[in-house]
Amino acid sequence: MTHARGERSALCDLFDRLGPDAPTLCTGWTTYDLAAHLVLRERRPDAMGGIAIKPLAGYTASVQNRIKARHPYPELVGLVRKPAGVYSLLPFLDEAVNALELFVHHEDVRRAQPSWEPRELGDDLDRLIWKRVSSGARLMLRRSPVGIVLHRLGGGVALGGARQGPKVEVTGTASELLMFCFGRQGHARVELTGEPHAVDQVRNAILGV
Q: Do 34 and 105 fall into the same domain?
């Protein structure tokens, strides 16, 4: 089983266990909303633009709401559980495009619940996450007003954020650095070191793709 399939299955099991009204780390979204987002992302490419482009966000939101209205929660989770389109035919593409997205959204649900703890990941998934973090750090951290130096526990350094001025060092495992870089700073188990004002700026920066 690929990592994308494993995260997809585990996330859907968690969706089933928690029900449609559980909180997530996605501001304003319940588990029902997040499930609808994932269905939209894979099955409505015409509406994906609003995920990243603000002028299109209204259309994306309206499609997502229609998906929710059309599908009862258990049915929607069933749609998430099955890769759609080319992802169902090409597992390697599903792995390349969806592994980290599904990992982060799985954690969005896990970490919004009380008493969560980081998972212990296999070496292969840990290496995959770090490979993507190290290659994508510039993109994910581009809006940081100060420089960021990512230090992976066990080895590895990546740079992002502003190229001039103070820098903040962020230390953690590959998965915690991924959550940090995806804008979940308040729910990432990392250590931040630097000038207090710079650290505060990094904590409050809008990060992510």
A: yes
Based on the domain organization, do 131 and 186 belong to the same domain? Answer: yes
- For residue 117, give every residue at least 6 positions away whose Cβ sits within 8 Å of its Cβ, in sequence order, or none: none
Same domain (yes/no): 7, 106: yes
Is the pTM higher than 0.90?
yes
pLDDT at 89: 66
The residue range of the domain holding 159 is: 125-204
Under a CB-based contact definition with an 8 Å cutoff, are residues 131 and 155 in contact?
Answer: no
Determine whether 180 is exposed, middle or buried from the number of CB atoms within 10 Å of its CB (0-12, 13-18, 19+): buried
Q: What is the pLDDT of residues 100-129, one digit of tens each?
A: 999 999 999 999 999 899 999 999 999 999
pLDDT in tens, 177-205: 999 999 999 999 999 999 999 999 999 99
